[in-house]
Amino acid sequence: MENGFVKSLRFLLECVLDLVYCGDEKCILCREELYKDKIICTTCKSNIKICKDSFDIKVHNKQCRCYSSAYYSGSMMELILKLKYKNSFRAGEVIAGYMKDTIFNNKIEFDIITYVPMTKKSIKKRGYNQSEYLARLLGKYVDKPVVSCLDKIKDTKDQIGLSKMNRWDNIQGSFKINNEHSIENKNILIIDDVLTTGATAFYCCSELIKAKVGKINILTGAKSKV
Ligand SMILES: [Zn+2]
After folding, report:
1. Which family does it belong to (predicted)?
2. Interval between CA 33 and ligand 1 midpoint (Å)
3. N or C: which end of the chain has fewer CB within 10 A?
4. For position 124, what pLDDT does the model report?
5. Closest CA to 226 of 165, 175, 172, 157
6. Quick one: pLDDT at residue 61?
């Protein structure tokens, strides 16, 4: 039990922190001053359309379930673009927060987290893999290990902007499993930023299945309407 003095001290400390934080904190999307909000303001939050649907993809007789936290529109689209192209790791924190909620709301069960890989060339160009960043944040939030077990061995065009057919051709044969022993019999959660046709999810699952894994679930920050 805390005594009155400690409580008062804690309250004072919180006030000071609030002041310090309020001083120059602005919403990373609209630059509005933030009060109690942390990274984006309530107005920007209000136009994030939560995605409650999930669907199964069948990969070599295995059902893999795909979840997305929100639709790829409004503030969620802006957050994804900021994380991907503007090095905004704070945008990533917001997205990962929504992904954590999706895990809890759907009671998604898994032993390890992995992520959709990028080629070495693409990582060198961007400096980081945004899906790995989201996976590592989630790993911390839900206290599960993050294992790198897929390599991207073929350069592909960005899925957004390609026709439905081209997306499947574009991505086929571009992933390869590594680290097979570390994922054997494990239930896996694959993390990606955006789900479009499900082609990326399909080919990642099809590689992971080679390692005799348990259940596979896929979780993306956003789902783009095809
Ligand atoms: Zn805002």
Report:
1. Belongs to the ComF/GntX family.
2. 8
3. N
4. 92
5. 165
6. 87
Q: In degrees, to the nearest 5, what angle opens at C-alpha 169 toward C-alphas 217 and 180?
A: 40
pLDDT at 90: 95
Q: From ligand 1's centre to the CA of 42, what distance in Å?
A: 7
Q: What domains sit in the chain, N to C, each tagged with a CATH number?
A: 1-46 (no CATH), 48-223 (3.40.50.2020)
* Structure tokens, 212: 């005799």
CA of 80 to the centre of ligand 1 (A): 15
What is the DSSP secondary structure assignment for residue 158, as one 8-state letter? -
Q: Are 76 and 221 in contact (CB under 8 A)?
A: yes
From the CA of 39, how far away is ligand 1's center (Å)? 9
- Number of other residues whose CB lies within 10 A of the CB of residue 119: 16
Cα-to-centroid distance, 158 and ligand 1 (Å): 27
Ligand 1 center–CA 94 separation, angstroms = 12
Question: What is the structure's pLDDT at 8?
Answer: 66
Q: Which helix (H) or strand (E) holds 27?
A: none
1 pLDDT band, cuts 50/70/90, is very low
Q: What is the mean pLDDT of residues 182-194?
A: 96
159 alpha carbon – ligand 1 mean position (Å): 28
Residue 33 DSSP label:
B
Using a CB cutoff of 5 Å, list residues around ligand 1, an ion. Answer: 27, 29-30, 32, 41, 44
Segment 14-47, tens digit of pLDDT: 656 555 554 458 999 999 999 877 899 999 999 9
